[in-house]
From TrEMBL:
<keyword id="KW-0150">Chloroplast</keyword>
<comment type="similarity">
    <text>Belongs to the glycosyl hydrolase 13 family.</text>
</comment>
<keyword id="KW-0934">Plastid</keyword>
<dbReference type="GO" id="GO:0009507">
    <property type="term" value="C:chloroplast"/>
</dbReference>
<dbReference type="InterPro" id="IPR004193">
    <property type="entry name" value="Glyco_hydro_13_N"/>
</dbReference>
<keyword id="KW-0378">Hydrolase</keyword>
<feature type="domain" description="Glycosyl hydrolase family 13 catalytic">
    <location>
        <begin position="238"/>
        <end position="671"/>
    </location>
</feature>
<dbReference type="Pfam" id="PF02922">
    <property type="entry name" value="CBM_48"/>
</dbReference>
<protein>
    <recommendedName>
        <fullName>isoamylase</fullName>
        <ecNumber>3.2.1.68</ecNumber>
    </recommendedName>
</protein>
<keyword id="KW-0809">Transit peptide</keyword>
<dbReference type="InterPro" id="IPR006047">
    <property type="entry name" value="GH13_cat_dom"/>
</dbReference>
<dbReference type="InterPro" id="IPR048650">
    <property type="entry name" value="ISOA1-3-like_C"/>
</dbReference>
<dbReference type="Pfam" id="PF21156">
    <property type="entry name" value="ISOA1-3_C"/>
</dbReference>
<dbReference type="InterPro" id="IPR044505">
    <property type="entry name" value="GlgX_Isoamylase_N_E_set"/>
</dbReference>
<dbReference type="GO" id="GO:0005975">
    <property type="term" value="P:carbohydrate metabolic process"/>
</dbReference>
<feature type="region of interest" description="Disordered">
    <location>
        <begin position="42"/>
        <end position="68"/>
    </location>
</feature>
<dbReference type="GO" id="GO:0019156">
    <property type="term" value="F:isoamylase activity"/>
</dbReference>
Length: 807
């Protein structure tokens, strides 16, 4: 039987937050087989041979809507009768090994008939269907749940479903009995085993199928338990799994994989002795749930290569880890890939690092009405997606569809999924992409249906923001999920911006986009931002205090995966996205960046020195601000993307961690970052559980106790009482002019410099191991004796108070 063709996803060139891909540098690359001895990977279960299907790369020149068009032909085999079939159970959803067999259960309210499809691993590569088991609506359906129980030989066997019913897009139904659909609750999805390699005949969307669990699926956690750090103590590192170890300079055995991350984890951990590594205690993994990196596959005429979905913000299945991020690929029907992800989590915990996942419950890879029918759309489109009265897809995500999050079935699905990642995969928290979509009313919003009674004055329609969204209520009060970290990206592309107002139940944190914008403006010397900058340093009480939240509810960041890197932020005034093949029309135009006087990397020595100083200023600000700091991968050594602020489509060095560049930076910016993270961890006052008051914090200007909050002020300084360090003086001079400041008088004590970003390395941070440290300190003795300190333009300082006799 031949499946109807569909095209790759449409580009999202003009939206604020792009979701696209590119630069496939080596589409035929292969990975070595997984060695079980390596990294102590314990995989116990049945093993199948690795797929040997031919992988062919082909695409139409110029891309366009037909680039990557895929047609899958499924040839039916006669029923083999290898399984004993019985009624089954309606719960739990998904495929569950029990009672010597496997139970299959799936929700579909609007389908009139359902068929369980069994596909062997070898038949999957040939687009063949191994066996079909029709489900009887009388015996294999309870309520809106279809179910069946099978006993038999499931070795190398996969599954999917066919549903039949009305195909009427205007009524919200896309039933097509020729499609083999993925189970939304499947724990692993198989189609291709290698990242970036096309399917047979250049197919971007070869047939996919779901792993069937077995009784001997095991993983040795070796006693792993949640670290449960207080959120105020976190230093988050945003990491792309493939990009972290894919570059040849990583020297890993399994580059671009979960195992590759494990091999390089020591780069991130908190050092036990000398400051040699970055010292973060939390990873935020960019999307690791199954997605199709070939979704946007199309020819890029600028580079003469092909685009891929590198970032992964387009989920195919929410329970399955990204199979092609594993070294094992489809080996053992995806079980080894699951165990590789578990290994990553276990080894991160072993090094004192929590693991968060970036999850995308705002839309799926099925796109709009022109997108593929993979799973949710074919199972029950009107339930899983937010639809207009005539079946059109609402597009609050900017990616073609909007997940119907507050529908009762969908919100239970999301809660089940999050619970799975916490209980089965030991994940410590989640960052929710475009989380404001989760606050919008579902299709056919009805307060009586949701709350059990009508709400007076309730005139809400589909997509309206809800003050108490049922999904967030469920997550926030769930006995399992309430104990993990929950971070919202509190906006969407439909214009809903909720930074500071996201429904929180006292536990949700937010990516603080206002922190990013304000800090960028102040550090580059924009007038009228000194007061707002001071709020950022205090954990943004203007946003969070009134609602009863704390500083740690603010996740502070200057850069993230989308937008300029830290190095590019001080090198480019304008985006340079021509390599994306969209005539520089994609990506954000308002970056609040400053090139320090010359555009691009080729600049004078004085400009380059100023750029280094500004990078240090940004990092000092991030580390001394109340709240939770987040560092973007590569910023610790000054990674550049050449001014491209939207690298969604590049599987290349542009998005790869450059370990060779990190080595070059060991005595320069990387060293500075390591010492600053260590300083933050040591200071009791830089991770407060509540907003600082006048008892602890005092503001200063050029003179002590006289802050300048005028619109022309570009100077902010303050002292902090710290139970470990005593008292700390911190100042930022964002003016183009140097200034001589007067320090607060402390009889019997004197101030001593620790950080001065105007100094070259290693004197930018005067750690105890700096050569001739005492000489460097003495150079300022005559100023400090007079309680003065000279600050250069665009610089920041940290001074510590010491007893006079020890000075």
């Amino acid at each position: 039987m031949e499946l109807a063709p569909y095209t790759s996803r449409f580009p999202c060139a003009t939206k604020l937050r792009p979701r696209e891909p590119q630069l496939l540098t080596n589409p035929k690359r292969t990975f070595p087989k997984l060695k079980k001895s390596a990294l102590n990977l314990d995989t116990r279960g049945r093993h199948s041979r690795r797929s040997k299907s031919s992988l062919v790369v082909s695409a139409r020149e110029g891309g366009g809507p037909e680039a990557g068009t895929a047609t899958a032909v499924v040839t039916e085999k006669p029923m083999l009768g290898r399984f004993r079939v019985s009624q089954g159970y309606p719960a739990p959803f998904g495929a569950t090994a029990r009672d010597g067999g496997v139970n299959f259960a799936i929700y579909s309210a609007n389908a009139v008939c359902a068929t369980l499809c069994l596909i062997s691993l070898s038949d999957l590569q040939d687009s063949k269907l191994t066996e079909q088991i029709p489900l009887d609506p009388q015996t294999n359906k309870t309520g809106d749940v279809w179910h069946v129980f099978l006993k038999g030989d499931f070795i190398d066997m996969l599954y999917g479903y066919k549903f039949d019913g009305e195909f009427s897009p205007k009524d919200g139904n896309y039933y097509d009995s020729s499609r083999i659909l993925l189970d939304p609750y499947a724990k692993a999805i198989l189609s291709r085993g290698e990242f970036g390699a096309l399917g047979t005949d250049g197919n971007c969307w070869p047939q996919m199928a779901c792993m069937i669990p077995s009784f001997d699926d095991e993983f040795d956690w070796e006693g792993d338990l949640p670290l449960k750090y207080p959120q105020r103590d976190l230093i988050i590192y945003e990491l792309h799994v493939r990009g972290f170890s894919r570059h040849e300079s990583s020297g890993t055995e399994f580059p671009g994989t979960y195992l590759g991350v494990v091999e390089k984890l020591d780069h991130l951990k908190v050092p036990m002795g000398l400051v040699e590594e970055l010292g973060v205690n939390c990873l935020e993994l960019m999307p690791c749930q199954e997605f199709n990196e070939l979704e946007y596959f199309g020819y890029n005429s600028v580079l003469g290569d092909y685009k891929v979905n590198f970032w992964g913000y387009s989920t195919v299945n929410y329970f399955s880890p990204m199979i092609r991020y594993s070294s094992a690929g489809m080996h053992n029907c995806g079980r080894d890939a699951i165990n590789e992800f578990k290994l990553l989590v276990r080894e991160a915990h072993r090094r004192g690092i929590e693991v968060f996942m970036d999850v995308v419950f705002n839309h799926t890879a099925e796109g709009n009405e022109n997108g593929p029918i993979l799973s949710f759309r074919g199972v029950d489109n009107s339930v899983y997606y937010m639809l207009a009265p005539k079946g059109e897809f609402y597009n609050y995500s900017g990616c073609g569809n909007t997940f119907n999050c507050n529908n009762p079935v969908v919100r239970q699905f999301i809660v089940d999924c999050l619970r799975y990642w916490v209980t089965e995969m030991h994940v410590d928290g989640f960052r929710f992409d475009l989380a404001s979509i989760m606050t919008r009313g579902s299709s056919l919003w009805d307060a009586l249906n949701v709350y059990g009674k009508p709400i007076e004055g309730d005139l809400l329609t589909t997509g309206s923001p809800l003050s108490s969204p049922p999904l967030l209520d469920m997550i926030s009060n769930d006995p399992i999920l309430r104990g993990v970290k929950l971070i919202a990206e509190a906006w969407d592309t439909g214009g809903l911006y909720q930074v500071g107002t996201f429904p929180h139940w006292g536990i949700w944190s937010e990516w603080n986009g206002k922190y990013r914008d304000t800090v960028r403006q102040f550090i580059k010397g924009t007038d009228a931002f000194s007061g707002a900058f001071a709020q950022c340093l205090c954990g943004s009480p203007n946003l969070y205090q009134e609602g009863g939240r704390k500083p740690w509810n603010s996740v502070n960041f200057v850069c993230a995966h989308d937008g300029f890197t830290l190095a590019d932020l001080v090198t480019y005034n304008n985006k340079h996205n021509l390599s994306n093949g969209e005539d520089n029309n994609d990506g954000e135009n308002h970056n609040n960046s400053w090139n320090c006087g010359q555009e691009g990397e080729f600049a004078s020595i004085s400009v380059k020195k100023l750029r280094k100083r500004q990078m240090r200023n940004f990092f000092v600000c991030l580390m001394v601000s109340q709240g939770v700091p987040m560092i973007s991968m590569g910023d610790e050594y000054g990674h550049t993307k050449g001014g491209n602020n939207n690298t969604y489509c590049h599987d290349s060095y542009v998005n790869y961690m450059r370990w060779d560049k990190k080595e070059e930076s060991l005595t320069d910016f990387f060293r500075f970052c390591c010492h600053m993270t260590k300083f933050r961890r040591e200071c009791e006052s830089l991770g407060l559980d509540d907003f600082p008051t006048a008892k602890r914090l005092q503001w200063h200007g050029h003179a002590p106790g006289v802050p300048d909050w005028s619109e022309t002020s570009r100077f902010v300084a303050f002292t902090l009482i710290d139970s470990v360090k005593g008292e700390i003086y911190i100042a930022f001079n964002a003016s183009h002019l140097p200034v001589m400041i007067t320090l607060p008088e402390r009889p019997g004590f004197r101030w001593e410099p620790l950080v001065d970003t105007s100094k070259p390395a290693p004197y930018d941070f005067l750690s105890s191991d700096v050569p001739e440290r005492e000489v460097a300190v003495q150079q300022y003795a005559h100023f400090l004796d007079a309680n003065l300190y000279p600050m250069l333009n665009y610089s920041s300082i940290i001074l510590l108070l010491f007893p006079e006799e020890n000075a």
